[in-house]
Every structure is written in structure tokens, then in C-alpha cells.
Specification:
This protein is α/β, with parallel strands linked by helices. The chain has one domain: 3-Layer(aba) Sandwich (Rossmann fold). Helix content is 43%, strand content 15%. The chain contains eight helices and eleven strands. The strands form three sheets. The chain has a seven-stranded parallel sheet, with helices on both faces. The longest helix has 26 residues. It is globular. The N terminus is likely disordered. Belongs to the short-chain dehydrogenases/reductases (SDR) family.
Length: 273
């Protein structure tokens, strides 16, 4: 008799049979995920605010449909989920990818900036999960893959808004991993380093280990197939961040304050679009 214990992936649908809902699909990593996923899944539903950009993507593929919605509007997300349920009956995987980034200037401190970033990156993800959960519960074994960041391992200069929002996402998703296990829904935390996107194109500082969005999408899809608890990349960059983040506080501060002395004013970007 084979006494091998079943892994989470053993009783889940293969990707080729899955209905997947992807947010933040109109640009950057989200757009790359559309191209990577469409050939590998049964149906892909893509969301963002920009309906025209979504439609241009969907028109390229027979199994891609759109649900334009703003993740910061809980009502819009619930309506999108209702439409998905009416058409497909369930979703098997949610990829909550949509997000934004604005950098803080402590000489011109702006609490509204921090509120905006948290509203999109954290509460937007919460709105998305709330809308998707009833559909995931109808799956054979649902999966939530949520976009956090490698910045959560090391508090970086000027990342007060972005880092705090992504740290909140990480904590939220780790709690969901525990609370959803008994429901048969798995949760993956996506933690990228620097990825070439319209968002990072606005950065005016060095971005070590930067990879292109298609490579990032391929890594994410592999992690989704494995239903990994964490999908982090690129390996060396995220390893270094985690190692620095594990240093005593006084040493960490020496590293990050040295970085801050060389920081330039930063532009803003938005991946939700």
C-alpha cells in the first residue's frame, strides 16, 4: 500500500482545467501573466480599471474575458465577482496582483500619500479577497495568490507607504493561510524584487537583480502550479534582503541610513491602471 501523504496540489485541479481571476492585468507583471497563463488554463478573467487596455489583451485570446473594476471600490469588486459567478460558477485561483507605489519625502511629509497607497495595496487586496472567496469555495481546491513584496524583509528609505502596505498584505495573507486551511483553500504570498514594469521605469535609483516581467510571470505561474506558500524572486536579491533584515537593529540601521543619504526624489507609479 502507498502511504504517501497527499500534498495540497494532489487534490487540486490541474492548471489546464482552472478558471483564474487576475487583477491588475492591464500592464506590468499583470499583463505578462495574461500572456503566460492564457495558454495554460481553461479560462482567464482579467480585471483592472482600464477597460480598453483589458479588451485589447482579451481580443488576442479566445479564453480570456474581462471584468473592468477598481479594487479600491468594494462594490465594484463584488459586482465583478457576481458576474463571474453567473458566467462560470466558480474560480479556482485568484491572483490579486493590482497595486501602486508612491515614495515618501520626509521633508514634505504627506499622510494622504500613505493613505492612498494603503487603500490600493492593502484594502484593495482585501476587497478582492472578499469578493472572490464565495467563488473559491466552489472550487475543488481554491488558491489565493496575493502580491506582497521583498521590501517587507527590510525597511527601506522612503518606502514608508509602500513597505507598510505590503507588510500588511503579508500579515493578512499569512493569517488567511491558517484560517482557510480547513476550507481547502490555499494561499500563496508573492514577494518579488525589482521587475521591469512601467512602475519601476520611473525609479531613478539602482535596482539590483532586476528581471523582466515575462520572467517574473513564469516564476509566478510555476509557484501557482506548486501551490507554494511563498513565491519569491529573484533568488539572490531576496536572499540578501532577508539576511540583512535578520541583522541586529543597529546594524540594519547602518545599512539603510547609508542608502538614505544617497536617495533622490522619486516619482510615483500605479500598476492598477
Amino acid at each position: 500500500m502507498n502511504n504517501r501523504k497527499l500534498s495540497a496540489a494532489d487534490n487540486s485541479l490541474p492548471l489546464s482545467a482552472q478558471i483564474i481571476w487576475l487583477t491588475g492585468a492591464s500592464s506590468g507583471i499583470g499583463e505578462a501573466l495574461v500572456h503566460a497563463l492564457q495558454a495554460q488554463c481553461q479560462q482567464l478573467i482579467i480585471s483592472a480599471r482600464n477597460a480598453e487596455a483589458l479588451q485589447r489583451l482579451a481580443d488576442q485570446y479566445s479564453n480570456v474575458s474581462i471584468q473592468a473594476a477598481d479594487i479600491t471600490d468594494a462594490g465594484q469588486m463584488l459586482s465583478a465577482a457576481e458576474a463571474i459567478g453567473d458566467q462560470f460558477g466558480r474560480i479556482d485561483t485568484l491572483i490579486a496582483n493590482a497595486g501602486t507605489c508612491e515614495y515618501v519625502d520626509v521633508d514634505n511629509f504627506d499622510s494622504a500619500l500613505i493613505r492612498r497607497v494603503l487603500e490600493t495595496n492593502f484594502f484593495g487586496l482585501v476587497n478582492t479577497v472578499q469578493a472572490a472567496l464565495p467563488l473559491l469555495e466552489k472550487s475543488q481546491r481554491g488558491l489565493i495568490a496575493g502580491m506582497s513584496s521583498s521590501v517587507t524583509w527590510l525597511a527601506m528609505p522612503r518606502a514608508q507607504a509602500y513597505g507598510a502596505s505590503k507588510a500588511a498584505v503579508r500579515h493578512f495573507l499569512e493569517c488567511m493561510q491558517a484560517d482557510l486551511k480547513h476550507k481547502g483553500i490555499d494561499v500563496s504570498i508573492i514577494s518579488p524584487g525589482f521587475v521591469q514594469t512601467p512602475l519601476t521605469d520611473r525609479n531613478d535609483f539602482p535596482m539590483p537583480g532586476k528581471i523582466d516581467s515575462s520572467e517574473a510571470a513564469d516564476i509566478i505561474v510555476k509557484g501557482i502550479r506548486k501551490r507554494s506558500l511563498e513565491i519569491r524572486f529573484p533568488f539572490m536579491f531576496t536572499l540578501v534582503l532577508r539576511l540583512i533584515g535578520s541583522l541586529p537593529a543597529s546594524l540594519r540601521l547602518k545599512v539603510t541610513s547609508a542608502m538614505a543619504r544617497n536617495e533622490k526624489s522619486e516619482k510615483t507609479g500605479d500598476q492598477q491602471k
